[in-house]
Predict the structure.
Amino acid sequence: MELWDAYDALGAKLNCSLVREEPLPANYLHVVATIAVRHHDGTWLLTRRDLNKPSYPGCWELSCGGSILKGETWYNGACRELLEETGIHAKSLVLHHTLISPETHSIHAGYLCDYTGDKDAIQLQENETIDYCWLTAKELLRFSQEPQFVDVQRVRWQRLLCRLKAENS
């Protein structure tokens, strides 16, 4: 059974737990960390979701990530998710954005990771991801408009995508 810390709509931690796969009470949120990885050569990591995932099966996303577990800090949970889904040991993550999404009972914490390791050393997590690729900023901007790109990622990473567009105009 996976437990999450509960948060209110202002992002304050509540003194109770939520259980994954159980309906969440109204006005209770949990934290989902997503991590966008940029290689030191300027390319961005995309991962392809497993074909059996309930949402967006087989689609590509800019980030990896998942729910922060009970007792984890947002940062530590993001580091764990990054390691589990890619094999990347985060040296440092920078919080890029937070988005409160009452309709999905979640707070999205988006982190940026600068990666200097071997691009071919990515280790995919079984039942989570089935492929990966590295795209230049221009390729990422183009690909983010394709139907096989997870559409909610356009919203979550809008500020980053706008910055990349301005830098590549």
Observations:
- The chain has a mean pLDDT of 93.
- The chain has one domain: 3-167.
